[in-house]
Automatic annotation (TrEMBL):
Its EC number is 4.1.2.13. Keywords: Glycolysis, Lyase. Signal peptide: none annotated. It is an enzyme of class 4 (lyase). Pfam families: Glycolytic. One of its GO terms (molecular function) is fructose-bisphosphate aldolase activity. Pathway: Carbohydrate degradation; glycolysis; D-glyceraldehyde 3-phosphate and glycerone phosphate from D-glucose: step 4/4. Transmembrane segments: none annotated. This is fructose-bisphosphate aldolase. Belongs to the class I fructose-bisphosphate aldolase family. One of its GO terms (biological process) is glycolytic process. The lineage of its organism: unclassified sequences, metagenomes, organismal metagenomes.
Length: 161
């Protein structure tokens, strides 16, 4: 990486950090993965008979997300950041990778969903499943100008175990 490009990346990350530290607003969740996408499309008016593969389903989901992201009301006035699914990060919006579009055109910071879902509940908690390629995902996210990551576990009740 040339020094000029490296300095631009550092400046971009500092500005993103300032937005996340000082900004007031929401983080929009655009990180829906395969498990519930068919239901989402159905709620959006697209029946399962209108696509025949997972790839077609994800393409339709991405088109739906693009409509949201390119909407004139999807702005950094109230939205500080977005959580992206890996396929969304690797896809383009108006000729740019998604995170670049969101940052360059909207001033919105991107995060990558890296968790692989939740394990079964045990002792009042659902822990994250193992993330086998975390380093590679973070490296790719960095190349795509994603600021950070999102992962989660769920605590349902207090438990000393």
């Amino acid at each position: 990486m040339t020094k000029t490009i490296y300095m631009e990346v550092i400046q971009m990350n500092e500005k993103m950090y300032e937005i996340m530290r000082d900004g007031r607003g929401f983080i929009a969740a655009l990180d829906q993965s395969g498990g519930s996408s068919a239901k989402t499309l159905k709620n959006y008016g697209i029946d399962e008979s209108e696509y025949s593969s997972e790839e077609e389903m994800f393409n339709l989901i991405h088109e739906m997300r693009k409509r949201v992201m390119t909407s004139k009301v999807f702005t950094n006035e109230h939205i500080l950041g977005t959580i992206l699914f890996e396929k969304t990060m690797m896809s383009e919006v108006n000729g740019k990778f998604t995170a670049d579009y969101l940052w360059d055109e909207k001033g919105i910071v991107s995060f990558l969903k890296v968790d692989k879902g939740l394990a079964e509940e045990k002792n009042g908690v659902k822990l994250m499943k193992e993330i086998p390629n975390l380093n590679e995902e973070i490296e790719e996210a960095s190349k795509k100008h994603v600021f950070g990551t999102k992962m989660r576990s769920v605590i349902y009740e207090a438990n000393e175990e």
